[in-house]
Protein 1
Amino acid sequence: MNKQHEKNKYNDPHFPFEIYRTDITGTFPEGHGFNDLHWHEELQFTLIKSGEVCIQINGEEIVLQENDGIFINSGVIHQMIAIGTGSSYHSITFPQSFLGFFSNSRLEINYVNPYTEQLVLPYIILTSNVTWQKNALTNLWEIEKIYLDTSEQKVAWQYQIATLIVQTWLTIIQSLEFITKKGISQKSYLHFERIQTMLRFIHENYAESISLADIAQSASISSSECTRTFKKFTHTTPYKYLINYRIKRSLDLLLMATSPISEIALNVGFNQTSHFIKEFKKQFGYPPKQYKDFY
């Protein structure tokens, strides 16, 4: 499975809705969390429960404070890149079919697809300082309360959530004249497609011996253009991104397996154990054999 193009899992396939809760210790239910670049087809509203969080969206860094929120559109590359001690956030995810009621409806054609396709509206920041944004946040916090406070879930709570989601979307599209458009040009959209292709290539082949030329070839561009595109969207080079991703994929193996470090290193693409240990220590400050002691 492509670890980066996220396919969210839902407890109830007949009600595809989830709230992922993340703090410095991890994400529950299991999903993409802190410092984990990804994108997904679902729409997402993230609420900052406490502290301060920095999110990177299509290469742009945005700092959000406690009680702020942000809408992240379908297909947008994003990751939380900084979260303070004691900080936490909740991410509400659902398919855009929630908003159109049924496929190819007039609602979907007129009021959903025009704003969820071709990255015309990658994200919208929500604060309580603006009336319409405050109204949207009020709905979102109510959704969180209904879903997470199971002791008080009432009859037809799913209807309550679906209705509040639609109300929130209506608030947004009625306020579009006040929203600064963040849409991208056709040229930028081409770069966006390229970075998705190259990221997908890395995530499918990280365990193999792959080079900068291989990554560039996956998107049919030169090595120099590959490097420029990576720096624009991820603020790092293709090589560093590959190394960091290999380290991330090693973490579960270190926790779950009894395999020697040398075998784990090979399984995630490091030909030399010493290289794996060096890069691991660079990220965490201690060798991989100690990782299990901390977690």
Protein 2
Amino acid sequence: MTNRPALKAAVIGGGLMGVLMDTPENVPPLTHAGGFLQHPDYDLKAICEPHPSPSLQNWPCKLYTALDDLLREEKLDIVSIAVPKEQQPSILTQLLDSGLQAVIAEKPLAPTLAEACALRDLYQEAGIPLLVNLPRRYSLMYQDFAKKFRTGEEHALCATLYYGKGLIHNGIHGIDLARLLFGEVIEARPLFARPDVFAEDPSISAFLRLEHCSQFHLNALDDNRFTCFELDIITDSGRYIVTNDHRTLQTSAVCDHTGIPLGKRLISTGSRPTDYEQSIMFLLDNARDVIGGKAAPLCSAATICDSHAVIQQIRDKARGNYFV
């Protein structure tokens, strides 16, 4: 907690990520509204949703149904946007002249890479920090992993990530996580595609080669059958599996003189909770420090555009092939 006055905040979008996955009492908070309400350095002033659920009346802040009314009536420092990607560009453009100190957006910034890059440039020219809610970028656990792999403390032999519900919609989490952990993408090659939820956004399996991981496999599942987002990393000294909706880390270590025949084997060393459920609070910590001039965004508009560019490369190569 800082000594400065609480930052006046609002959430645009009253859906799941904006509000509905939480109640005002939920600890830890999972949504933008819950984070603003519970973080000591913010003051949640309002939620803006054109078609509000009755449950939004339970939140201790004003409820607006029109963005113009929100911006006219409230003097805000920061706004979070949690709306479908098709709606986000026009809202982001409107917020440029609203006197905000920072804006938090959802992924991707826009349906197309060109639109996303244009928004990135507009915010850079306006001098307004534009942060993006990719939760793993704010996780201390993943930051520790990234340091370990990027410095060579531990060498990643291969990694596999399972996902569904569209390469743009959900796969962008996997692509961006790969870049966070292992550096920039050197090669990206599509292998298979399935239109599991969105016909215009198929889930695409791909092979990636990165600076610090020569084999990264992005495996597309069918989200109509079940939801799964899991990461499996095998290194020269162990194994890390993130499972249980991102909330559990299972670890193994290389042990000698074990197995049949005796030799080196990967042996389980247990499991522990991740810090995934704290990600919204970590995001707001970072946004506060960005506004205070003490830090750079951990996930900026430029970061998400670079990940979107990798996705576009995969989609371009897959177009007309691989069942797309």
